Amino acid sequence: MDYALDKLTTPCYLIDLGLLKKNLEILKDVQARTGCKILLAQKGYAAWSTYDLCSQYLAGTAASSLHEAKLGAEYFKGELHLCAPAYRDDEMDEYLRIVNHIVFNSFAQWNRFKSKIQNASRKIACGLRINPMHSEVETKIYDPCAPGSRLGIPPDVFKRGTGILPVNHGQDGHATDENPLDGITGLHFHTLCELNTDSLARTLAVVEKQFGETIEKMDRVNFGGGHHITRPDYDVDLLCELITDFHKRYPNLKTIYLEPGEAVALNTGVLVASVLDIVRNDIDIAILDTSASAHMPDVLEMPYRPTIIGGGQGDTGLKPAKHGQGWPSHKKYTYRLAGSTCLAGDVIGDYSFDKPLAVGNKLVFGDMAHYTMVKNTMFNGVNLPDIVLYDPDTDKYKLQRRFTYDDFKNRLS
Ligand SMILES: *Cc1c(COP(=O)(O)O)cnc(C)c1O
User: Fold this and answer.
1) Which pLDDT score is estimated for 317?
2) Residues 118-143: pLDDT tens digits?
3) Residue nearest (by alpha carbon) to ligand 1 atom 8
Protein backbone atom coordinates (compact mmCIF):
# COMPACT_ATOMS: atom_id res chain seq x y z
CA MET A 1 0.00 0.00 0.00
CA ASP A 2 1.36 3.40 -0.96
CA TYR A 3 0.34 5.96 1.63
CA ALA A 4 0.67 9.69 1.00
CA LEU A 5 3.66 10.04 3.29
CA ASP A 6 4.03 13.75 2.59
CA LYS A 7 0.68 14.31 4.34
CA LEU A 8 1.84 12.62 7.53
CA THR A 9 3.71 14.09 10.46
CA THR A 10 6.01 11.51 12.00
CA PRO A 11 6.13 9.44 14.00
CA CYS A 12 2.60 8.12 13.56
CA TYR A 13 0.72 4.89 13.75
CA LEU A 14 -1.51 4.73 10.70
CA ILE A 15 -4.49 2.40 10.97
CA ASP A 16 -5.87 1.39 7.57
CA LEU A 17 -9.62 1.00 8.03
CA GLY A 18 -9.89 -0.94 4.77
CA LEU A 19 -7.42 -3.56 5.95
CA LEU A 20 -9.11 -3.69 9.35
CA LYS A 21 -12.44 -4.36 7.64
CA LYS A 22 -10.84 -7.14 5.63
CA ASN A 23 -9.77 -8.89 8.86
CA LEU A 24 -13.15 -8.30 10.46
CA GLU A 25 -14.87 -9.88 7.43
CA ILE A 26 -12.79 -13.03 7.89
CA LEU A 27 -13.70 -13.20 11.58
CA LYS A 28 -17.35 -12.55 10.82
CA ASP A 29 -17.29 -15.39 8.31
CA VAL A 30 -15.90 -17.79 10.96
CA GLN A 31 -18.77 -16.79 13.26
CA ALA A 32 -21.33 -17.26 10.51
CA ARG A 33 -19.99 -20.67 9.51
CA THR A 34 -19.68 -22.10 13.03
CA GLY A 35 -22.06 -20.20 15.31
CA CYS A 36 -19.13 -19.31 17.55
CA LYS A 37 -18.71 -15.83 18.98
CA ILE A 38 -15.52 -13.85 18.55
CA LEU A 39 -14.46 -11.19 21.04
CA LEU A 40 -11.75 -8.58 20.62
CA ALA A 41 -9.04 -9.11 23.25
CA GLN A 42 -8.28 -5.49 24.09
CA LYS A 43 -4.85 -6.40 25.42
CA GLY A 44 -3.59 -6.59 21.84
CA TYR A 45 -5.55 -3.80 20.20
CA ALA A 46 -7.55 -1.09 21.89
CA ALA A 47 -7.78 1.78 19.39
CA TRP A 48 -11.26 2.68 20.60
CA SER A 49 -11.94 5.11 17.78
CA THR A 50 -12.36 1.98 15.62
CA TYR A 51 -14.54 0.05 18.12
CA ASP A 52 -17.72 1.21 16.43
CA LEU A 53 -16.52 -0.45 13.23
CA CYS A 54 -15.27 -3.59 15.04
CA SER A 55 -18.55 -4.03 16.90
CA GLN A 56 -20.39 -4.34 13.58
CA TYR A 57 -18.50 -7.61 13.04
CA LEU A 58 -17.54 -9.02 16.45
CA ALA A 59 -19.64 -10.17 19.41
CA GLY A 60 -17.91 -8.09 22.07
CA THR A 61 -14.67 -7.55 23.92
CA ALA A 62 -12.46 -9.38 26.37
CA ALA A 63 -10.90 -7.35 29.17
CA SER A 64 -8.23 -8.21 31.71
CA SER A 65 -8.34 -5.12 33.88
CA LEU A 66 -10.77 -2.51 35.11
CA HIS A 67 -9.58 0.04 32.59
CA GLU A 68 -9.95 -2.35 29.67
CA ALA A 69 -13.40 -3.32 30.95
CA LYS A 70 -14.46 0.32 31.17
CA LEU A 71 -13.15 1.03 27.68
CA GLY A 72 -15.06 -1.95 26.26
CA ALA A 73 -18.22 -0.89 28.09
CA GLU A 74 -17.92 2.69 26.91
CA TYR A 75 -17.13 2.19 23.23
CA PHE A 76 -17.91 -1.37 22.08
CA LYS A 77 -21.48 -2.53 21.60
CA GLY A 78 -21.61 -6.18 22.62
CA GLU A 79 -20.73 -8.66 25.32
CA LEU A 80 -18.01 -7.86 27.83
CA HIS A 81 -15.96 -10.75 29.20
CA LEU A 82 -13.46 -10.39 32.01
CA CYS A 83 -10.49 -12.70 32.55
CA ALA A 84 -7.53 -11.78 34.74
CA PRO A 85 -5.05 -13.66 36.94
CA ALA A 86 -6.66 -12.22 40.10
CA TYR A 87 -9.24 -9.59 41.03
CA ARG A 88 -8.99 -6.87 43.65
CA ASP A 89 -11.75 -6.63 46.25
CA ASP A 90 -12.07 -2.88 45.69
CA GLU A 91 -12.73 -3.21 41.95
CA MET A 92 -15.36 -5.94 41.95
CA ASP A 93 -18.38 -3.66 42.46
CA GLU A 94 -17.44 -1.67 39.39
CA TYR A 95 -16.92 -4.83 37.34
CA LEU A 96 -20.33 -6.10 38.40
CA ARG A 97 -21.96 -3.00 36.94
CA ILE A 98 -20.49 -3.48 33.46
CA VAL A 99 -19.31 -7.02 32.61
CA ASN A 100 -21.42 -10.00 31.45
CA HIS A 101 -18.94 -12.78 32.06
CA ILE A 102 -16.21 -13.24 34.64
CA VAL A 103 -13.56 -15.93 34.37
CA PHE A 104 -11.72 -16.87 37.57
CA ASN A 105 -8.17 -18.12 37.61
CA SER A 106 -8.54 -20.25 40.78
CA PHE A 107 -11.20 -21.87 42.96
CA ALA A 108 -10.15 -19.54 45.76
CA GLN A 109 -10.90 -16.42 43.70
CA TRP A 110 -14.25 -17.86 42.63
CA ASN A 111 -15.18 -18.62 46.22
CA ARG A 112 -14.03 -15.20 47.36
CA PHE A 113 -16.42 -13.38 45.00
CA LYS A 114 -19.18 -15.97 44.52
CA SER A 115 -21.78 -14.62 46.94
CA LYS A 116 -21.18 -11.04 45.88
CA ILE A 117 -21.77 -12.00 42.25
CA GLN A 118 -24.82 -14.12 43.01
CA ASN A 119 -26.33 -11.23 44.99
CA ALA A 120 -25.58 -8.66 42.28
CA SER A 121 -28.49 -6.92 40.59
CA ARG A 122 -27.29 -8.05 37.14
CA LYS A 123 -26.90 -11.63 36.03
CA ILE A 124 -23.26 -12.46 35.43
CA ALA A 125 -22.05 -15.74 33.94
CA CYS A 126 -19.04 -17.22 35.70
CA GLY A 127 -16.32 -19.47 34.42
CA LEU A 128 -12.96 -20.94 35.39
CA ARG A 129 -9.73 -20.61 33.48
CA ILE A 130 -8.10 -24.00 33.03
CA ASN A 131 -4.55 -24.74 32.01
CA PRO A 132 -4.03 -27.98 30.06
CA MET A 133 -0.27 -27.57 30.56
CA HIS A 134 0.29 -28.38 26.91
CA SER A 135 2.84 -25.99 25.40
CA GLU A 136 2.60 -24.89 21.79
CA VAL A 137 4.34 -21.52 22.21
CA GLU A 138 8.12 -21.53 21.92
CA THR A 139 8.90 -18.08 23.33
CA LYS A 140 8.85 -18.69 27.08
CA ILE A 141 7.43 -15.36 28.23
CA TYR A 142 4.46 -15.91 25.91
CA ASP A 143 3.77 -19.50 26.98
CA PRO A 144 0.93 -19.76 29.53
CA CYS A 145 1.68 -23.49 29.80
CA ALA A 146 5.32 -23.13 30.85
CA PRO A 147 6.24 -24.98 34.07
CA GLY A 148 5.12 -23.05 37.13
CA SER A 149 2.64 -20.94 35.15
CA ARG A 150 0.07 -18.98 37.20
CA LEU A 151 -2.37 -18.75 34.28
CA GLY A 152 -5.26 -21.15 34.70
CA ILE A 153 -5.99 -24.12 36.94
CA PRO A 154 -3.75 -27.06 36.04
CA PRO A 155 -5.35 -30.51 35.54
CA ASP A 156 -4.34 -32.03 38.89
CA VAL A 157 -5.54 -29.04 40.92
CA PHE A 158 -8.76 -28.95 38.90
CA LYS A 159 -9.43 -32.65 39.43
CA ARG A 160 -8.92 -32.39 43.16
CA GLY A 161 -10.98 -29.20 43.26
CA THR A 162 -13.91 -30.86 41.54
CA GLY A 163 -13.67 -34.13 43.44
CA ILE A 164 -12.50 -36.21 40.49
CA LEU A 165 -9.33 -36.87 42.50
CA PRO A 166 -9.19 -37.07 46.32
CA VAL A 167 -8.84 -33.67 47.94
CA ASN A 168 -5.60 -32.46 49.44
CA HIS A 169 -7.07 -30.52 52.33
CA GLY A 170 -5.85 -27.00 52.71
CA GLN A 171 -3.85 -26.99 49.50
CA ASP A 172 -6.34 -26.10 46.84
CA GLY A 173 -7.95 -23.21 48.66
CA HIS A 174 -11.61 -24.07 48.23
CA ALA A 175 -14.52 -25.12 50.42
CA THR A 176 -15.01 -28.86 50.08
CA ASP A 177 -18.50 -29.18 51.55
CA GLU A 178 -20.34 -27.85 48.50
CA ASN A 179 -20.02 -28.52 44.81
CA PRO A 180 -17.16 -26.23 43.74
CA LEU A 181 -18.64 -26.00 40.24
CA ASP A 182 -22.03 -24.82 41.52
CA GLY A 183 -22.54 -21.51 39.70
CA ILE A 184 -19.78 -22.18 37.15
CA THR A 185 -21.16 -22.44 33.64
CA GLY A 186 -18.07 -21.94 31.48
CA LEU A 187 -14.48 -23.00 31.01
CA HIS A 188 -11.78 -20.85 29.46
CA PHE A 189 -8.31 -21.66 28.21
CA HIS A 190 -5.76 -19.42 26.54
CA THR A 191 -2.58 -21.21 25.58
CA LEU A 192 -1.65 -20.09 22.06
CA CYS A 193 0.26 -17.17 20.54
CA GLU A 194 0.48 -16.40 16.81
CA LEU A 195 -0.34 -20.03 15.99
CA ASN A 196 -2.20 -21.95 13.32
CA THR A 197 -4.92 -24.59 13.59
CA ASP A 198 -2.58 -27.55 14.08
CA SER A 199 -1.69 -26.07 17.47
CA LEU A 200 -5.35 -25.60 18.34
CA ALA A 201 -6.13 -29.19 17.29
CA ARG A 202 -3.43 -30.64 19.56
CA THR A 203 -4.50 -28.34 22.40
CA LEU A 204 -8.17 -29.31 22.12
CA ALA A 205 -7.24 -32.99 22.32
CA VAL A 206 -5.42 -32.39 25.63
CA VAL A 207 -8.15 -30.11 26.97
CA GLU A 208 -10.78 -32.76 26.26
CA LYS A 209 -8.73 -35.53 27.78
CA GLN A 210 -8.08 -33.57 30.97
CA PHE A 211 -11.32 -31.62 31.36
CA GLY A 212 -13.85 -33.44 29.14
CA GLU A 213 -16.19 -34.58 31.89
CA THR A 214 -16.55 -31.00 33.11
CA ILE A 215 -17.01 -29.61 29.60
CA GLU A 216 -20.06 -31.91 29.35
CA LYS A 217 -21.71 -29.87 32.11
CA MET A 218 -20.89 -26.41 30.78
CA ASP A 219 -22.77 -23.83 28.69
CA ARG A 220 -19.64 -22.31 27.20
CA VAL A 221 -16.03 -22.93 26.40
CA ASN A 222 -13.71 -20.08 25.48
CA PHE A 223 -10.74 -21.11 23.31
CA GLY A 224 -8.84 -17.91 24.21
CA GLY A 225 -6.67 -15.98 21.78
CA GLY A 226 -3.44 -16.59 19.91
CA HIS A 227 -5.25 -17.87 16.82
CA HIS A 228 -3.59 -16.16 13.85
CA ILE A 229 -6.85 -16.37 11.89
CA THR A 230 -6.23 -13.45 9.53
CA ARG A 231 -2.72 -14.49 8.50
CA PRO A 232 -2.71 -15.49 4.82
CA ASP A 233 -1.61 -19.09 5.50
CA TYR A 234 -4.02 -19.67 8.39
CA ASP A 235 -6.28 -22.66 7.83
CA VAL A 236 -9.68 -21.06 8.36
CA ASP A 237 -11.52 -24.12 7.04
CA LEU A 238 -9.86 -26.36 9.61
CA LEU A 239 -10.65 -23.86 12.38
CA CYS A 240 -14.32 -23.99 11.40
CA GLU A 241 -14.20 -27.77 11.33
CA LEU A 242 -12.57 -27.95 14.78
CA ILE A 243 -15.21 -25.67 16.27
CA THR A 244 -18.11 -27.49 14.61
CA ASP A 245 -16.79 -30.93 15.62
CA PHE A 246 -16.20 -29.78 19.21
CA HIS A 247 -19.77 -28.55 19.32
CA LYS A 248 -21.03 -31.91 18.06
CA ARG A 249 -19.13 -33.78 20.78
CA TYR A 250 -20.54 -31.45 23.46
CA PRO A 251 -24.12 -30.69 22.41
CA ASN A 252 -24.70 -29.20 25.87
CA LEU A 253 -22.60 -26.18 24.87
CA LYS A 254 -24.55 -23.08 23.91
CA THR A 255 -21.59 -21.04 22.76
CA ILE A 256 -17.95 -21.46 21.84
CA TYR A 257 -15.96 -18.26 22.16
CA LEU A 258 -12.67 -17.15 20.64
CA GLU A 259 -10.95 -14.01 21.86
CA PRO A 260 -8.12 -13.06 19.52
CA GLY A 261 -6.37 -9.73 19.86
CA GLU A 262 -3.60 -9.86 17.32
CA ALA A 263 -5.69 -11.50 14.57
CA VAL A 264 -8.13 -8.58 14.61
CA ALA A 265 -5.46 -5.99 13.85
CA LEU A 266 -2.85 -8.13 12.09
CA ASN A 267 -1.29 -6.25 9.15
CA THR A 268 -3.80 -3.41 9.42
CA GLY A 269 -1.45 -0.60 10.34
CA VAL A 270 2.03 0.83 9.92
CA LEU A 271 4.35 3.05 11.88
CA VAL A 272 5.76 5.90 9.85
CA ALA A 273 9.02 7.44 11.07
CA SER A 274 11.62 9.89 9.77
CA VAL A 275 15.39 9.80 9.70
CA LEU A 276 16.79 12.42 12.11
CA ASP A 277 20.49 11.76 11.65
CA ILE A 278 22.94 9.31 10.18
CA VAL A 279 26.07 8.48 12.15
CA ARG A 280 28.92 6.08 11.55
CA ASN A 281 30.65 3.69 13.91
CA ASP A 282 32.10 0.99 11.64
CA ILE A 283 28.57 0.70 10.28
CA ASP A 284 26.06 3.28 9.08
CA ILE A 285 23.42 3.98 11.68
CA ALA A 286 20.23 5.93 11.00
CA ILE A 287 18.67 7.52 14.08
CA LEU A 288 14.90 7.75 13.71
CA ASP A 289 12.20 9.81 15.39
CA THR A 290 10.69 6.56 16.69
CA SER A 291 11.97 3.99 19.16
CA ALA A 292 11.96 0.22 19.48
CA SER A 293 11.83 0.58 23.23
CA ALA A 294 9.08 3.19 23.46
CA HIS A 295 6.94 2.70 20.32
CA MET A 296 7.35 -0.94 19.29
CA PRO A 297 8.38 -2.72 22.52
CA ASP A 298 7.76 -6.23 21.13
CA VAL A 299 10.72 -5.72 18.80
CA LEU A 300 12.86 -5.98 21.94
CA GLU A 301 10.59 -8.17 24.05
CA MET A 302 9.53 -10.90 21.60
CA PRO A 303 12.09 -10.22 20.00
CA TYR A 304 11.49 -9.79 16.28
CA ARG A 305 12.55 -7.67 13.33
CA PRO A 306 9.72 -5.65 11.78
CA THR A 307 9.42 -5.35 8.01
CA ILE A 308 9.98 -2.05 6.24
CA ILE A 309 8.04 -1.21 3.12
CA GLY A 310 10.58 -0.78 0.33
CA GLY A 311 13.43 -1.85 2.57
CA GLY A 312 15.24 -5.14 2.22
CA GLN A 313 16.87 -7.39 4.71
CA GLY A 314 20.19 -6.16 5.88
CA ASP A 315 23.16 -7.39 7.83
CA THR A 316 25.74 -4.97 9.13
CA GLY A 317 27.66 -7.99 10.38
CA LEU A 318 27.60 -6.60 13.90
CA LYS A 319 26.02 -8.18 16.94
CA PRO A 320 23.55 -8.34 18.56
CA ALA A 321 22.80 -11.31 16.39
CA LYS A 322 19.05 -11.15 16.80
CA HIS A 323 19.10 -7.80 15.03
CA GLY A 324 19.90 -8.96 11.59
CA GLN A 325 22.65 -11.54 11.58
CA GLY A 326 21.86 -14.21 9.06
CA TRP A 327 20.04 -11.85 6.74
CA PRO A 328 22.32 -11.02 3.84
CA SER A 329 21.77 -7.50 2.57
CA HIS A 330 19.37 -7.59 -0.35
CA LYS A 331 19.98 -4.05 -1.47
CA LYS A 332 22.98 -1.89 -1.95
CA TYR A 333 22.92 0.43 1.09
CA THR A 334 22.80 -1.14 4.53
CA TYR A 335 21.94 0.66 7.76
CA ARG A 336 21.24 -0.14 11.34
CA LEU A 337 17.99 1.62 12.25
CA ALA A 338 17.97 2.85 15.81
CA GLY A 339 15.68 4.80 18.11
CA SER A 340 15.81 8.22 19.66
CA THR A 341 15.90 7.23 23.34
CA CYS A 342 19.18 7.04 25.24
CA LEU A 343 18.91 3.27 25.71
CA ALA A 344 21.96 1.69 24.06
CA GLY A 345 19.89 -1.27 22.91
CA ASP A 346 17.17 0.85 21.31
CA VAL A 347 17.83 -0.79 17.96
CA ILE A 348 15.09 -1.79 15.54
CA GLY A 349 17.27 -3.85 13.22
CA ASP A 350 19.54 -3.87 10.19
CA TYR A 351 18.03 -3.09 6.79
CA SER A 352 19.18 -2.42 3.26
CA PHE A 353 17.90 0.08 0.71
CA ASP A 354 18.30 0.83 -3.00
CA LYS A 355 19.32 4.42 -2.34
CA PRO A 356 21.33 5.94 0.50
CA LEU A 357 19.15 7.19 3.35
CA ALA A 358 19.07 10.92 3.97
CA VAL A 359 17.87 13.05 6.85
CA GLY A 360 14.13 13.62 6.48
CA ASN A 361 13.44 10.36 4.60
CA LYS A 362 10.30 8.62 5.79
CA LEU A 363 10.35 4.94 6.60
CA VAL A 364 7.25 2.76 6.96
CA PHE A 365 7.35 -0.19 9.37
CA GLY A 366 4.81 -2.91 8.65
CA ASP A 367 2.25 -4.57 10.94
CA MET A 368 2.32 -2.00 13.73
CA ALA A 369 -1.34 -1.79 14.81
CA HIS A 370 -1.35 -4.57 17.42
CA TYR A 371 0.70 -4.73 20.62
CA THR A 372 2.11 -1.26 19.94
CA MET A 373 -0.37 1.47 20.91
CA VAL A 374 -1.49 -0.67 23.86
CA LYS A 375 1.97 -1.10 25.31
CA ASN A 376 4.08 1.85 24.19
CA THR A 377 5.64 4.14 26.79
CA MET A 378 6.87 7.69 27.17
CA PHE A 379 10.26 6.44 28.33
CA ASN A 380 12.86 9.19 28.25
CA GLY A 381 10.07 11.71 27.63
CA VAL A 382 10.04 10.71 23.98
CA ASN A 383 6.58 11.59 22.72
CA LEU A 384 4.16 8.94 21.51
CA PRO A 385 3.41 8.66 17.80
CA ASP A 386 0.22 10.26 16.48
CA ILE A 387 -2.67 7.90 15.80
CA VAL A 388 -3.98 8.42 12.27
CA LEU A 389 -6.95 6.68 10.65
CA TYR A 390 -6.80 6.13 6.90
CA ASP A 391 -10.04 5.50 5.04
CA PRO A 392 -9.37 4.07 1.57
CA ASP A 393 -12.98 4.73 0.50
CA THR A 394 -12.47 8.49 0.77
CA ASP A 395 -8.65 8.46 0.59
CA LYS A 396 -8.70 10.63 3.75
CA TYR A 397 -6.20 10.69 6.59
CA LYS A 398 -7.72 11.63 9.94
CA LEU A 399 -5.45 12.72 12.75
CA GLN A 400 -7.24 10.88 15.55
CA ARG A 401 -4.88 11.71 18.37
CA ARG A 402 -1.74 13.76 18.97
CA PHE A 403 0.03 13.46 22.31
CA THR A 404 1.52 16.36 24.19
CA TYR A 405 3.76 17.32 27.07
CA ASP A 406 0.71 17.15 29.35
CA ASP A 407 0.26 13.45 28.58
CA PHE A 408 3.83 12.86 29.74
CA LYS A 409 3.50 15.08 32.80
CA ASN A 410 0.12 13.75 33.93
CA ARG A 411 1.29 10.24 34.51
CA LEU A 412 4.04 11.47 36.78
CA SER A 413 3.96 13.68 39.82
C1 LIG B 1 -3.36 -12.21 25.34
C2 LIG B 1 -4.68 -12.85 25.52
C3 LIG B 1 -5.57 -12.95 24.45
C4 LIG B 1 -5.27 -12.45 23.05
O5 LIG B 1 -4.14 -13.06 22.51
P6 LIG B 1 -3.68 -12.74 21.01
O7 LIG B 1 -2.39 -13.46 20.91
O8 LIG B 1 -3.52 -11.27 20.89
O9 LIG B 1 -4.71 -13.27 20.10
C10 LIG B 1 -6.80 -13.55 24.68
N11 LIG B 1 -7.12 -14.02 25.91
C12 LIG B 1 -6.28 -13.93 26.96
C13 LIG B 1 -6.71 -14.46 28.28
C14 LIG B 1 -5.04 -13.34 26.81
O15 LIG B 1 -4.21 -13.27 27.85
Assistant:
1) 63
2) 999 999 999 999 999 999 999 999 99
3) 261
CA of 206 to the centre of ligand 1 (A): 19
Q: Mean of the pLDDT values across residues 336-363? A: 96
CA-CA-CA-CA torsion for 199, 203, 206, 209, nearest 10 degrees?
Answer: -120
| 60 in the same domain as 90 | yes
If asked whether residues 228 and 276 sit together in one domain, one would say no
Average pLDDT over residues 302-308: 92
Residue 327 pLDDT exceeds 80: no
Q: 353: CA distance to ligand 1 center in Å?
A: 35
Q: Is 52 left (phi over 0), alpha (psi -120 to 50) or beta?
A: alpha
SS3 label, residue 104: strand
Please state the φ and ψ torsions of residue 222, each to the nearest 5 degrees. -110, 120
Evaluate whether 13 touches 45 at the Cβ level (below 8 Å). no
> DSSP string of 285-317?
EEEESS-HHHH-THHHHTT----BTT-EE---S
In a domain, 152, yes or no: yes
- CA 67 to ligand 1 center in whole angstroms: 16
Best probe residue, ligand 1, of 259, 262, 267, 298 (max atoms within 8 Å of C-beta):
259
Outline where 35-135 has alpha helix (H): 51-54, 66-75, 92-98, 107-118
pTM: 0.95
Interacting residues of 296 by C-beta distance below 8 A, sequence separation 6+: 271, 290, 306, 348, 365, 368, 372, 376
Closest protein CA for atom 2 of ligand 1? 225
Q: Are residues 196 and 317 in the same domain?
A: no
User: Ligand 1 pocket, 262 CB below 6 A?
Assistant: yes
